[in-house]
Amino acid sequence: MFDTAKACEILSKPQKSLAYLLEVYCEVTTDKTMQRGDWRLRPLTPEMIEYARTDAHYLLYIANCLASELHAKACVIAQIWSACNFMQKKSNVLLELPVQHLFSHEICKLMG
Hints:
Layout: H1 4-10, H2 18-26, H3 46-96, H4 105-111
Helix pairs in contact: 1-3, 2-3
């Protein structure tokens, strides 16, 4: 299960709608008049079937695109987290040193 709306939220997309995602990732413009149709009716009209088919046809591709973007964002966040942890470790080293060593040449190289 993949929630495209939640992915859009995490990725700070300007919109979460499937119509938006279809335009951005697939360059497909859909007629959303069927969105508000009564889907309880059976048999479905040919227009409803085409509408559902079109939406479903592109969903896996869109989900893969969004998942790739989420993965890339996670990698960037992991790199930032790693850099923060690295700097925190350097800061902890500084906190353990006597004050007279804080301005030594070795400390400048360590922080450098």
